[in-house]
Design brief:
Elements: H1 5-15, H2 22-32, H3 35-40, H4 54-64, H5 69-80, E1 83-84, H6 93-96, E2 105-109, E3 117-121, H7 128-143, E4 147-150, H8 156-166, E5 170-174, H9 188-196, E6 200-203, H10 215-226, E7 229-232, H11 240-250, E8 254-257, H12 265-275, E9 279-280, H13 284-291, H14 312-320, E10 326-327, H15 328-335, H16 339-351, E11 355-358, E12 362-365
Parallel strand pairs: 3-4, 3-7, 4-5, 5-6, 7-8, 8-9
Antiparallel strand pairs: 1-2, 2-6, 10-12, 11-12
Helix pairs in contact: 1-5, 7-8, 10-11, 14-16
Length: 366
């Protein structure tokens, strides 16, 4: 849809009316052709739309009498800063395709490109196996020009965001609170890095909205709706990641899962998804082929067969390591590095294929 300030004002006004959720808003727009026209129309025409009962129409008529859309838009822009509506050209086309697109999207950071986008989701209490694959896939997808979507949570989400940033890729974090709140609080630095590196912080909730348990399942539809495919790496039988996967399937998007053991609680949700027809991630190469990675490379990105260059600090650390596993504490003693600096360098080396992390915080040179 072409950007139209008047239409933008009416999208905002309609979204503020009680009883007008995302599904009804999209139905109203598709039936009337514009939100401005819908506002001016005889309310009896609203009754032609599924879900618009006589009682709801009367409530809407009463509510809209006290709203002035253009004045509301000016107030909202001053109070909350930048946001998108479906009237804006920057609104993600992939997200508009779902049945319940958010009428207002608040943001920080750079807008777009939105496609191609892949969601990486999973449990907050991820295993070493799940975290390793989140890093591997986030790094490779980011390196090849995919936008990686996730929810900024600890565990799988955080590992995917961090790896994409390490690959100098673009990542989008969708929050279940206002965009001015870096939640969870231990990810404040990551929140800032996403903005600084050309990514986006998104939420349908106005700035100042605190994180509330009920908001997170609802925001998962945005994660699924923005993405051409959703990767579920680890999820117990009751998991927000499963909600995202089911929504993605409902939207006609591909769902992939990381295979795991029947003995692991965090594999059981993934195995349920496989039973319902989700695809298995059998290798990075297979997944990238399925996603059409060959046609999505960014300008200047090295081919997957070329080794990535190490910076001087990474190279010095790599030369200290051997092919035999060594514990983190021993590497710290050998290198003389502060533990925080060492952790960052090891993560960079791991994502670039220079080292492998093993169980028990042990590392070896690849």
């Amino acid at each position: 849809m072409a950007e139209d300030r008047t239409e933008r004002a009416y999208w905002l006004a309609w979204s503020r009316l009680e009883g007008m959720g995302p599904i009804r808003l999209k139905r109203l727009y598709e039936h009337m052709g514009s939100m401005h026209c819908a506002w001016q129309a005889d309310p009896r025409r609203w009754r032609e739309i599924a879900g618009f009962s006589l009682n709801l129409v009367e409530q809407l008529r009463s509510q809209k009498a006290s709203l002035e859309p253009e004045a509301l838009l000016e107030t909202w822009e001053t109070k909350y800063g930048p946001f998108l509506t479906p009237a804006d050209t920057a609104y993600p086309a992939q997200l508009w395709e779902i049945a319940d697109p958010p009428p207002v999207l608040y943001y920080r950071g750079k807008l777009g490109p939105w496609e191609p986008a892949v969601a990486i989701v999973g449990t907050r209490r991820a295993s070493e196996y799940g975290q390793r694959w989140a890093k591997k896939l986030g790094f490779e997808l980011g390196r090849l020009g995919f936008t990686v979507i996730s929810g900024l949570a600890v565990g799988i989400d955080g590992a995917a965001h961090r790896a994409t940033l390490a690959a100098q890729g673009r990542t989008v974090a969708v929050l279940g609170c206002g965009i001015d709140i870096a939640y969870p609080y231990q990810h404040q630095r990551m929140y800032q890095s996403i903005i600084a590196q050309g990514g986006t912080i998104l939420s349908e909730y106005p700035p100042g909205t605190p994180p509330t348990a009920g908001y997170f399942p609802h925001r998962n539809r945005i994660v699924a709706g923005l993405s051409k495919a959703t990767l579920v790496l680890e999820a117990p039988e009751r998991s927000g990641a499963l909600i995202t996967a089911y929504l993605a399937a409902d939207y006609g998007r591909d769902v992939y899962v990381l295979p795991g053991s029947l003995d692991m609680e965090y594999s059981l949700g993934c195995l349920q998804l496989v039973d319902r027809g989700a695809h298995l991630i059998l290798s990075t190469e297979q997944l990238l082929k399925d996603l059409g990675a060959a046609g999505s490379q960014r300008e200047g990105v090295k081919s997957s067969s070329a080794p990535l260059e190490l910076d001087p600090e990474e190279k010095a650390l790599w030369e200290i390591l051997t092919a035999h596993p060594e514990p983190f504490d021993q590497i710290a003693l050998k290198s003389g590095l502060d533990t925080g600096v060492l952790s960052a360098l090891l993560l960079g080396l791991e994502l670039k294929g220079g080292v492998e992390q093993l169980a028990g915080m042990q590392y070896r040179r690849c």
